[in-house]
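Hi support team,

I've been running sequence recovery on a batch of backbones for a student project. Most finish fine, but this one hangs at about 90% for roughly twenty minutes before it completes. I'm not sure whether the input is malformed or the queue is just slow. I've pasted the structure tokens below so you can try to reproduce it. Let me know if you need the job ID as well.

Thanks,
M.K.
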């Protein structure tokens, strides 16, 4: 009887001690770690909390990608490790965690409430990714804001997707927006608190019925990626379009022109005996002609435009939700709102209507859609 009482006291004591120390200090980082190994490491960090794995599923070999930048409970970390891989956990009265196959269920109302009460995480930082692996870019963006994340749904293969994106901050921007920009080319989205855990973003494939997050044109018009061109750089007596083709070929970058009559611009003269930055060369060539550039993140290309011209993307979903049932009539209203230099085009792959013009005319075009 005394032995039984002693054993009971030890169990109660161990559970009570764990309850008092239930948070695991950051950082907790798993980058392609097999799930079974990640579980062993997690419970080691939890100072010997007992657990049993009740399945021999191959899912235990799945690579996991989790980064926690804040103190976290064992149960939150278990959720992030297991939920994306079709496993669940339960806790016995003795304080033993059991891991088995099954599906988590998450209350959408609780998630919505959590999103509403928590302001979006924002940062003001410079980013320059030149063929950076996607997972590295995600980590660099999340770290300054203390945002945690999990890559779920078997999308670890996208981790090495090359990211080419440069952001020059002028003010604070939502972490969700920056992540959305670099994830979209890989077919991924990020969703705040989707697993019901504050501060944790779920990165996964976009569902068929989901719309891409709308990104303001001011974010898309980031500074073009600079490339140092080896001198000498000589472009003399040739048409502007031909000169630009040679310049961008030398820089190894793509470009497009939003200026319809760019082929009619006459002879250009540019000469630099020394190495020169692409941005500096373009400025010297285009500025006297009243032209400028912007970098289109989605297409990974530089656009030639008239100075002062900006570009906006309006998703088909937003057009539909605006109540513009007569699509042709809506397009006529948009065209009427643009100047003679304005450009209207479509990207059916991205499901967006693209408008390029002076800022005041873009505002008129957006208003025309809502009529």
């Amino acid at each position: 009887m005394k032995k039984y009482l002693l054993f009971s006291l030890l169990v109660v004591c161990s559970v009570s001690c764990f309850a008092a120390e239930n948070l695991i200090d950051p950082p907790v980082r798993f980058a392609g770690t097999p799930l079974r190994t990640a579980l062993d490491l997690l419970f080691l960090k939890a100072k010997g909390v007992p657990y049993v794995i009740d399945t021999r599923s191959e899912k235990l070999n799945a690579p996991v990608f989790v980064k926690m930048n804040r103190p976290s409970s064992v149960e939150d970390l278990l959720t992030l490790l297991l939920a994306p891989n079709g496993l669940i956990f339960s806790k016995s009265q003795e304080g033993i965690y059991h891991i088995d196959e099954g599906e988590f269920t998450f209350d959408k109302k609780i998630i919505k409430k959590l999103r509403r009460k928590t302001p979006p995480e924002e940062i003001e930082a410079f980013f320059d990714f030149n063929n950076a692996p996607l997972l590295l870019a995600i980590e660099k963006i999340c770290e300054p804001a203390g945002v945690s994340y999990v890559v779920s749904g078997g999308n670890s293969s996208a981790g090495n997707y090359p990211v080419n994106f440069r952001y020059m901050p002028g003010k604070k921007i939502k972490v969700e927006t920056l992540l959305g920009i670099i994830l979209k080319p890989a077919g991924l989205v990020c969703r705040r608190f989707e697993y019901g855990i504050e501060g944790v973003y779920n990165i996964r494939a976009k569902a068929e019925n989901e719309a891409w997050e709308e990104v303001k044109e001011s974010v898309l018009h980031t500074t073009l990626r600079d490339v140092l061109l080896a001198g000498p750089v000589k472009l003399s007596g040739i048409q502007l379009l031909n000169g630009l083709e040679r310049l961008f070929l030398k820089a190894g970058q793509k470009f497009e022109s939003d200026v319809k009559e760019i082929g009619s611009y006459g002879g250009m003269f540019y000469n630099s005996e020394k190495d020169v930055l692409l941005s500096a060369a373009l400025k010297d060539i285009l500025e006297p002609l009243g032209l400028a550039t912007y970098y289109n993140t989605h297409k990974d290309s530089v656009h030639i435009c008239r100075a002062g011209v900006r570009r906006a993307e309006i998703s088909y979903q937003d057009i539909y939700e605006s109540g513009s049932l007569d699509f042709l009539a809506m397009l006529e209203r948009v065209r009427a709102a643009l100047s003679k230099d304005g450009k209207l085009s479509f990207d059916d792959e991205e499901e967006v209507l693209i408008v390029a013009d002076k800022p005041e005319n873009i505002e008129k075009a957006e208003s025309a859609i809502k009529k």
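--
Follow-up from support: It reproduced on our side and the slowdown came from queue contention, not your input. The CA atoms of residues 85 and 122 lie 30 Å apart. No action needed from you.
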